[in-house]
Specification:
single chain, 115 residues, mainly alpha, 67% helix, elongated
Length: 115
């Protein structure tokens, strides 16, 4: 992923932009997610939907047709989360591109003159 290849200072910019795009912190705290025994892969902004879906699955003995609404809510939230991440990444890439253009030194100054 692009963010893994970015310099360290871009992580902080990306995280702050991601919070702004999502409109705040997650609806569940880390402790609530831990107490609900959510897997680490599901501890994100959609954690409250994952808790509801897992509760419904347990109550209905994992019958797939019983918890369709909760599953749909979880998938919808994750799709929105992915779209927000992609939008934040595009803004970050545009800012990095503009910064590179501003700091660019003319090629004639960096290359030795050949005669």
């Amino acid at each position: 992923m692009y963010v893994q290849m970015c310099p360290v200072y871009l992580y902080h910019i990306f995280f702050r932009m991601f919070i702004v795009f999502l409109g705040g912190a997650p609806k569940m705290s880390r402790e609530e997610m831990r107490d609900a025994e959510l897997p680490l892969s599901e501890r994100d902004w959609c954690g409250h939907y994952a808790v509801a879906a897992n509760k419904c699955r347990r109550e209905n003995n994992w019958l797939p047709w019983r918890c369709g609404h909760e599953k749909h809510d979880l998938q919808h939230c994750r799709m929105d989360l992915l779209k927000d991440r992609m939008r934040a990444l595009k803004v970050l890439e545009a800012r990095e591109y503009q910064r590179n253009i501003r700091e660019k030194i003319p090629t004639s100054a960096t290359q030795p003159a050949t005669q």
